[in-house]
Amino acid sequence: MARYFIQRAAGLLFVLFAVSVITFTLMHAVPGGPWDATAHNPLPEETRRALAHKFGFDQPLPVQYLRYMGSALHLDFGVPFESPGETVTDLIGRTWPITAVLGGITILFSIVVGVPLGAMAALRQNSWIDYLISSISSLGFAVPNFALAIVFITVISDIYHLLPTGGWGTPQQLIMPVIAYALFPTSQIARYTRVSVLEVLRADYIRTARAKGLPRRNVVVRHVLRNALLPMITVIGPLLPDLITGSIFIEGIFSIPGLGSFFSTSAINRDYPMIMAVTLLYTVLIAVTYLVTDLLYMVVDPRVRLAGEGG
Amino acid sequence: MAESTLRLEEKVESVTERTTSFWGDAARRFRRNRLAVTGLIIVLAIILLAAGANILAPQGYNTFNGLLAYHFPSWEHLFGTDDRGRDELAIVLFGARTALLVGFSTAISSIIIGVPLGLLSGLRGGALDFVVMRVVDITAAFPQVLFALFIVAAIGSGLLNVILAIGLLNWVILCRLVRAQVLALRSTEYVEAARAMGASEGSIMWRHLLPNTIGPLLVAVAIGIPSAIFTEAGLGFLGLGIDPTTPDWGNMIANARENISYYWHLALFPALALSVTMLAFNFVGDGLRDALDPRDRR
Fold first, then answer.
1. Which residue among B141, B237, B268 places its CB closest to the CB of A15?
2. Main-chain dihedrals φ then ψ at residue A142, nearest 5 degrees
3. Contact B268/A26, CB-based, under 8 Å?
4. Which of A69, B88, B258, B290 would give a disulfide with B79, using CB separation of 3.0 to 4.6 Å?
5. How far is Cα A262 from Cα A264, in angstroms, rounded to an integer?
């Protein structure tokens, strides 16, 4: 297990290194920079050169990269061009909690709604409840969350004036974004729970439990659900980084001042320090979540551990 | 003696007549799946509507008329008109062309990159496999929309670049899938037998490995199309899509956002078009999976 962990951690470092190099190179390959002269904002050549010098853009790329990564290790990602009054770390520290709260509530919502729906569909397989839940979950799989958000705003806010169209701060403003955002993870969780429960229902030990004469409720709660929900770790794990780093679309539509909505403006305006920091953050989160998911799964399911050591 | 051989042949023939092929079986299973057939019909309808956009909306999507700006849906303009008096239905129809073009060309480009790499990687192993798999790891580590956003920012927007950006992402899935299939099939008895009979690596690849990966590949491609359409709409929504003059659902939704509390029709119809398209493609993909993988059948 220790060897496996070291291997995985080394792989993670390699991926991080590669991602940072690629991002850094791509960003500097982008034609046009933040100080390009525009009609609104004409900059004289000398000023531009002075700015480039100040931020170290006149150095060779590898030097720039090493300098950047050196400070990044101290959580110093520079100053965002768009908001020069603060550091990138400050900006992320200010916007990310909002995104994380939205994402956290969304995950809870998805699990609380998705797992019971999936289990219900499996326990009543091929009944109308199963068909209804399965159709809703395929709907949630396919419909883009920003499209659903638009429909919500049109019907709920514009026509019936039940909820505000956007903003941040009150519980009412959370309802629509969370539901629109949770659509996909809820569908995914429901679908996999259904498959997992169905699989366990066919297992020999369930037949034995039934044959022993245990009441159905006991079998379902103690034997079926306990075993069926274990694999769900691998489904929910990978959903986490996406959700806590926020949706560019959901935050944009509902005017939520989180990391996602900030990032889309950074990308359009080529705010290098911001793009670089957010990409690194995303990559670390994704890689770490996958690693933790796999390790957690090895801890809860001894069969995986044994198979891993044998092979 | 001769007579009995003849009879035996007849019997063999009658048996082979009754067995159905793998693809025949799959087609039958697909036809029985009502949701999948509905999805397929909708997909075909969308293709027809997109192809016939200039017949259904002969005025094109670029006919401006200031007097007609911001009309709500009526019999004359079923989806209403936009800020410049253009017919919303016409733009949605022409937008379907963009969406389908991106969906299908991305599928093709990711097949062209992913399948040969997956085949070679699985068959050869060694250094090539190591390199390809690391590239796959790195590509998969990037957040999807972010990566597409980068490429478009780096090489510029425009239809071809958007297709390239999404294709550069989606090949990874196909490559992994084909490699896994090859690894699983490589040591099967019939491949061993072919090798023992002196078949070359190339012929093993084309005659034995590739045909067996087509099923899962088809499913992955069918599911990849709506995801490409979604990414493209997402880029358009962020203003980094093809270009502002090309009709594009994501772009339309983004433009309608500002006045959404009043001119709801400008956001609703492209959002519905996008949802229906993605839903239909997903139904077809799910149907294909159920049809091609009988083990998974309900």
1. B141
2. -100, -35
3. no
4. B88
5. 6
Q: Can you give the C-alpha Rg of chain B in angstroms?
A: 24
User: Nearest to residue B82, comparing CAs of B101, B65, B106, B107?
Assistant: B65
Instruction: Report whether B262 contacts A121 (CB < 8 A).
Output: no
pLDDT, residue A182, reads: 92
For residue B52, pLDDT beyond 80: yes
The DSSP call for residue B81 is: B
Question: Distance between CA B186 and CA A214 in Å, rounded?
Answer: 46
* Phi, psi torsion values for B81, nearest 5 degrees: -130, 160
Cα of B35 to nearest chain A Cα, Å: 9
Structural tokens at position A236: 């929910």
Q: Please give the pLDDT value at position A33.
A: 59
Which positions ≥6 away from A134 have C-beta within 8 Å?
A121, A191, A194
Instruction: Find residue B81's DSSP bridge partners.
Output: B87
Please name the member of A26, A31, A248 whose beta carbon is closest to the beta carbon of B150. Answer: A26
Contact between A111 and A240 under an 8 Å Cβ cutoff? The reply is no
Provide the token pair at A126. 């091929």
Substitution target in A25, A30, A135, A150 with the highest count of B β-carbons within 10 Å is: A150
The Cα B163–Cα B161 span in angstroms is: 5
> What would the pLDDT profile of A186-234 be if each residue is shown by its tens digit?
998 998 899 889 888 888 888 888 888 888 888 888 888 888 887 787 7
Amino acid in the structure at residue B34: R
> Which residue in B240, B261, B282 is closest to A165 by CB distance?
B261
Query: Per residue in B132-154, pLDDT tens?
Result: 888 888 887 776 677 777 777 66
Place of tokens 């799959």: B26
Adjacent-strand bridge partners of B87: B81
Residues of B in contact with A147 (CB under 8 A): 253, 271-272, 274-275
Residue B155's identity, in one-letter code, is I
- Res B2 pLDDT > 60: no
Helices B265-292 and B249-256, axial angle in degrees (round to 10): 140
Distance CA A78, CA A56 (A): 11
Inspect the interface and report whether the beta carbons of A138 and B142 lie closer than 8 Å. no
Taking the C-alpha atoms of residue B100 and residue A171, their distance in angstroms, rounded to an integer, is 39
**pTM (2 d.p.):** 0.78
Percent above pLDDT 70 for chain B: 88
Structure tokens at B108: 């093709």
> At a CB cut-off of 8 Å and minimum separation 6, what does B198 contact?
none
**Residue A135: burial class (beta carbons within 10 Å; 0-12, 13-18, 19+):** exposed
DSSP state of B87: B
A contact test, residue of B229, B230, B251 with most A CBs within 10 A: B230
Number of C-alpha atoms within 13 angstroms, CB side, residue A195? 12
String of b and e for A89-100 (b: at least 16 CB within 10 Å)?
bebbeebbebbb
Residue A296 pLDDT: 80
The Cα–Cα gap between B275 and B230 comes to 9
